[in-house]
Amino acid sequence: MITEDMATGLLLQNNGWQGVFVNEALASGLSPETLADYVKQRDRWGRGNVQVAKKYTLEKLKNLSFIQKWFYLDGVLYWYSGMYKLIYLLCPFLYLVFNISSLKTMLAQLVIFWLPAFLSGSLMYKSVTRKKYNSFINNIYELVTAPQVSWAVWKETLFSPKKNKKFHVTIKGIQGEKSYFDWRNCKIQILLLGVNCFALIYYIWQLDLGQLQWWNVLSINIYSILHSSFNDRDRDDPDGKYRRCCFFKR
């Protein structure tokens, strides 16, 4: 949920209005066209959701049902998910260098227990979204924006926001044909890649090839990469089209 949708919805429902799902695209909008603009938009949405949650606490919204409060809380907690994605990317380094196991399993156990859950979840996701959205691509975007969004959300959570802060609207509608690599917004990911490559080289150098525990290393790396890439729900609308709810008085 973006900021104004969340604030409007919870206030209306708290005042006795009922939300009804309308299976029709009633509005459309443009999406950011560069990674930098996308990061700025996610930064603003994440901070906005935290601000709404801090202003309208669940204790103040006494007319909402338990389920309604839970869904709004879930929408806010989503913006903290970037932190665990970064932690998963650090798991190979922690194991290879410090022998800290984030997951005690073998490759066969990983396939038996994790793969069925992943496949069933993916099939259900495709069925619900009618194959219109790609969870793999969405999670790539979430992984790329995880460092900046996590920092913004936690800073907004722990500290008071600056008053009279200028609002920056995301630039849209300007199509560029020039391709480039956005090094500035990928520094953390490149750093994590370098750290994990160093850890793998260090691990191989420390052990004899005959004693190298390839199955354990492979299990942890596969789980970390797949979990951070796939195991999440799609919260965005890549096409820029939003399905709205109509509210009416009881």
Description of the structure:
It is globular and about 70 Å long. The protein has a domain at 34-54 and 79-161 and 180-239. By secondary structure, it is mostly helical. Helices cover 59% and strands 8% of the residues. It has eight helices and two strands. Strands 1-2 form a two-stranded antiparallel sheet. α1 runs parallel beside α2 (35-55), α4 crosses α6 and α4 (81-98) runs parallel beside α7 (187-206).
Label this structure with key terms.
single chain, 250 residues, mainly alpha, two-stranded antiparallel sheet, 59% helix, globular
Counting helices, strands and paired strands, the structural category is mainly alpha
Main beta-sheet strand count, sense and barrel state: 2 strands, antiparallel
How many individual β-strands?
2
Q: What would you call the shape?
A: globular
Mean pLDDT: 77
Order of helices and strands: HEHHHHHHHE
How many DSSP H or I helices?
A: 8
Portion of residues in beta strands equals 5-15%
CA radius of gyration: 21 Å
Instruction: For the record, give the distance between the C-alpha atoms at the N and C termini, rounded to a whole number.
Output: 24 Å
Poorly predicted tracts of residues: 232-236, 238-249
Biggest β-sheet: strands ordered side by side in the sheet: 1-2
Classify the helix fraction into a percent range: 55-70%
